[in-house]
Amino acid sequence: MVQDWSNFAIVTGGASGALTGLLFVAVSISRERIASHPTLRGQAGQTLVLFVLPLLLAALLVLPGASRTALGAGLVAMAVAAGVVLVVVGRAKKSAATGSDDRLSMLLDQVSPNLVVVLLALIGGCVQLAGDDGLYWIAAASALSLVGGVVNAWLFMTRT
After folding, report:
1. Best label site of 84, 120, 124, 145, fewest CB within 10 Å?
2. pLDDT attached to residue 106
3. DSSP state of 92
4. For residue 123, how many other CB atoms are within 10 A of its CB?
């Protein structure tokens, strides 16, 4: 069953790796400004997590010989870890926020895909642990994570 998902894992892992690299380039270009602005640091951190999560999910999908239980446990652990990091980075971002006049960025900050991505990955892992195919949930989490990361990166770059 997991072999059916190998092409998906290759595509999302490659896209995620490329976007992560581009984020590092963007951050390095404006590093002084970002280092002095806690909100930008927080947004860059959240964007990094959203770009790296599909890469790690893809790595789990192509792991040879993993049982359904091992895959489910790995997915649950990864979702929990990503959720904790997103919450910690999000708190630092919110505590330093200074009110934005940009309505789109305010809306996207409030209706962030972060929670949905983590929940989708967590559901997928739990479904795998229960013995069913939870990989469609993982596909949704990966796709939303990449889209959310791109939107977050766009907002991040327009603020720098």
Report:
1. 84
2. 60
3. H
4. 19
